[in-house]
Amino acid sequence: MNARRVITRFLLPAGAVALAAALAAVRAQPTGHALDFTTTQYFEPPHQQQVKSILSGAEAVARPGQPYLIHQFRLQTFDVNGRTNMIVTGPECFYNEKACTASSAGPLEVQNGDGSFHVAGDGFLWRQTNSLLTISNNVRTVIKYGAKMTAWP
Amino acid sequence: MNRLWPILLLLLGALPAPAQTNVTTATLPTARGPTLISARTGDFDLNAREAVYRGHVRVDDPQMQLTCEQLSADMPQEGGHVSHIVAETNVVIDFMDNKGLTNRATGDKAVYIYSVQGGVTNETVTLTGDPQPQMEDGQGNTIVGDVIVWDRLSNHWTASNFKIIYRHSLINSPAATNAAPANPPPGTNQPGAPPAR
């Protein structure tokens, strides 16, 4: 059997089968994008009816085997009474659904409900399980004292 | 026992002595500018609303500048106020007194507490640590104590178990005042002066 026959009879069909299998595998994984992405986390019992955090984005891109890419993300955390704790925003982040983390090397901003406590920084990791946000670089905080909060008479 | 002994500092020289620490006089500003905190990294517990800043921490406030290596603070909710801040490791606080002189307080730890009890506002910064915290005024006089407390509303400082080191006595001591010239001319009599070495 010469080389041409080997290629024709065995290698080409095998390659076609392998290619088809690979394409099928790729199709099996979720891909594409979604607008108005939202994922909600609830408190543990006895406050399981209360929302603990909401991570949302203008657009979410699903990539095979990788975290979601969230554009224009917004993370809002609440206390058990439903009051806003903090609001985190940024141009984009990666959301790992399995690891329950969101991260980015880009900029972000954090502020409380009325903006009197405002934080900016570059690069972050948010751990959803314990609501811990780590800002990696260049952390700047501004604390404003409004008329209602000032201590001065 | 740590009794807090009120001490008069130079910045108080230009201030009327307050009858109490919670002053409501017209000399205080009616509004306060923002406080800025910068650091290399930060951890923020979004549920407990606690922030921990690490690495070259700097606080800029209309009343003072503070630097340290680590600072933790609570994050207020809407309408709230930062009520607790702890600065640790190489804490340095620079502030201007009413004479325009820069004063410096140093310590291992500084704790800021803000509270309103019975309609009375309290706002203090307490310096502690080992070595003892100290404060140096714009003229070089230094106060060293176990605890140094700064009442931010009255701009009043207190210290416990303190000692004061006057720079004046070091520079203008009698021996130095009457000291002989460093290089007296040969043959010159210097009554009372020590023999030249």
Notes on the protein architecture:
The complex is a heterodimer of chains A (153) and B (197). Residues 22-29 and 147-153 of chain A have low confidence and may be disordered. Chain A contains one helix and seven strands. Helix content of chain A is 17%, strand content 55%. Chain A has 153 residues and is α+β, with helices and mostly antiparallel strands. With 197 residues, chain B is mainly beta. In chain B, strands 1, 2, 3, 4, 5, 6, 7, 8, 9, 10, 11, 12 and 13 form a 13-stranded antiparallel sheet that branches. The longest helix of chain B has 5 residues, at 167-171. Residues 1-30 and 175-197 of chain B have low confidence and may be disordered. Classes of the chains: A alpha+beta (153), B mainly beta (197). Strand 7 of chain A pairs antiparallel with strand 2 (35-39) of chain B, so a sheet runs across the interface.
